[in-house]
């Protein structure tokens, strides 16, 4: 597995752990209401699990398994993917913290970071989205 996929999967698992914990707290608080302010965790719960876990897992695995080029670098240039990985995680962190603190302007900034990350990942995968051609690609 390429290093980018390893780090994307590790970060995805981290987001999953924190997002799941927030979900458990929300659920417990729903069954036995203790602190109304715990509901502030809901947007972070959604962000961590939908973007930080599911989207990141998909992108990390896609970078690993999409068709490779015949000649090195077999997965194309990895720089856009690394920058995308960094921006995705910064975005998730920013949106999560900002939504807990109620700072909408930072939520917007985080979303821009996430959207840029997805464009970078997609642009790095795009050239690899081709049917196999002898001499150009292997599956
Ligand atoms: C991949 C896993 C998960 C995803 C993508 C996810 C996503 C979401 C989303 C989108 C909502 C908002 C639903 C709405 O407003 O109608 C939500 C709410 C919630 N989630 Fe999760 N969730 C996940 C796992 C979990 C887990 C494991 C728990 C508990 C241990 C949990 C507990 C909750 C609770 C308590 C709410 C609030 C429900 C309410 O509004 O009454 N979630 N989740």
Secondary structure elements and their pairing?
Blueprint: H1 3-31, H2 41-65, E1 68-69, H3 79-101, H4 104-125, E2 137-138
Antiparallel strand pairs: 1-2
Protoporphyrin IX containing FE binds at residues 20, 23-24, 26-27, 30, 42, 45-46, 49-50, 53.
Q: What are the defining features of this structure?
A:
binds protoporphyrin IX containing FE, two-stranded antiparallel ribbon, 4 helices, elongated, mainly alpha, 139 residues
Q: What do you see in this structure?
A:
The chain is mainly α and 139 residues long. It has one domain. The protein is 71% helix and 3% strand. The chain has four helices and two strands. It has helices at residues 3-31, 41-65, 79-101, 104-125, and strands at residues 68-69, 137-138. The chain has a two-stranded antiparallel sheet. Helix 2 packs parallel to helix 4 (104-125). The model has no long low-confidence stretch (mean pLDDT 94).
Number of domains: 1
Strand order in the sheet with the most strands: 1-2
**Strand composition percent:** under 5%
Measured between the Cα atoms of the first and last residue, the distance is 15 Å
Tell the overall outline.
Answer: elongated
The molecules bound to the chains, other than polymers, are: protoporphyrin IX containing FE
Q: Biggest β-sheet: count, sense, barrel?
A: 2 strands, antiparallel
Uncertain residue ranges: none
Secondary-structure-derived class: mainly alpha
Number of strands: 2
Helicity level: over 70%
- Mean pLDDT reading: 94
- The rounded Rg comes to 18 Å
Give the H and E element order.
HHEHHE
Q: How many helical stretches?
A: 4
């Amino acid at each position: 597995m390429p290093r980018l996929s390893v780090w994307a999967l590790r970060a995805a698992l981290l987001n999953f752990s924190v997002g799941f914990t927030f979900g458990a707290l929300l659920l417990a608080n729903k069954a036995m209401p203790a602190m109304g302010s715990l509901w502030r965790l809901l947007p972070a719960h959604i962000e961590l699990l939908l973007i930080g876990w599911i989207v990141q897992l998909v992108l990390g695995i896609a970078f690993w398994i999409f068709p490779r080029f015949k000649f090195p670098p077999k997965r194309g240039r990895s720089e856009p993917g690394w920058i995308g990985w960094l921006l995705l995680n910064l975005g998730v962190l920013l949106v999560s913290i900002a939504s807990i603190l109620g700072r909408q302007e930072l939520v917007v900034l985080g979303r821009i970071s996430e959207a840029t990350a997805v464009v970078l990942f997609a642009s790095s995968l795009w050239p690899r989205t081709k049917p196999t051609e002898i001499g150009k690609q292997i599956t």
